[in-house]
Design brief:
Elements lengths: L7 H9 L2 H8 L2 H5 L3 H9 L2 H9 L6 H9 L6 H23 L2 H5 L3 H14 L3 H13 L3 H6 L4 E3 L3 E3 L2 E2 L3 H14 L3 H41 L2
Antiparallel strand pairs: 1-2, 2-3
């Protein structure tokens, strides 16, 4: 990466797409279940008999649905299509997250959780030197964009210091740094995954919201009609 984006929108998207934030999307059971939906939707939408039966299903037309059908030429199975593409996007985001997200981020929700879980193990197995080398390698592999994201610096002297402050627990400091460095890896890829997740959520939410408004309107009208009797 030879350039650093200066646009505030891109910078905001980068912060929202950190691996630690995407973790709640990628490891959600609902998102994981959506992987099966494209296969089911594929079978449904390519079956002419099923499509004809779905097209015959009648929905009470409230003002919102009536306006949409009058101004936008929607196919009879538009709800199914939106659910299909929405679930497909969520499944794609989940697969991409599982492919590129670092294992440390998948396993631990924060750098402090990782440090608490592994610092004693690293010290007891005398792996501090290996961990120091791994963290130094991560620093060396940072792109210009990733380097510009960093809000902290580590000095790898005889005693590790974080932002100029000496650390009483070298292993914890190294583990925290390792998690934070991997959290910002692949910013452009992370942003794409975030946008895919958002697209899937919006496509799934549209038919749900419209149906909710439609049902609420019809129920309200019937309630008023019942009270006027």
């Amino acid at each position: 990466m030879k350039w650093i984006p200066r646009w505030s929108a891109v910078q905001w998207l980068e912060r929202q797409s950190r691996w630690g934030r995407l973790r709640s999307w990628g490891q959600s059971n609902l998102v994981k279940a959506s992987i099966l939906m494209p296969a089911c939707g594929y079978l449904l939408l390519l079956n002419d008999e099923v499509q004809q039966r779905l097209a015959k299903i009648k929905f009470d037309r409230g003002w919102l649905l009536a306006w949409l059908l009058d101004h936008i030429h929607l196919p009879p199975t538009w709800r199914i299509w939106l659910l299909f593409y929405g679930s497909f996007s969520l499944a794609a985001g989940s697969i991409l997250f599982g492919w590129r997200c670092p294992e440390e981020i998948k396993r631990y929700s924060s750098s402090f959780e990782m440090a608490n879980a592994e610092s004693r193990l690293v010290a007891s197995q005398r792996q501090t030197g290996r961990l120091r080398s791994d963290v130094q390698s991560l620093y060396a592999q940072l792109s210009r964009w990733e380097d510009s994201i960093l809000t902290f610096r580590v000095d790898f002297g005889e005693h590790v210091t974080l932002q100029g402050q000496p650390s009483s627990d070298t292993e914890s400091s190294l583990l925290i740094t390792q998690w934070e460095l991997k959290n910002i890896k692949c910013p452009l890829f992370r942003i794409c995954v975030l946008l895919i997740f958002w697209t899937g959520l919006i496509l799934v939410a549209i038919p749900a919201v419209i149906t909710f408004i439609n049902v609420s309107e019809v129920a309200f009208q019937r309630l008023l009609g019942f009270q006027s009797r």
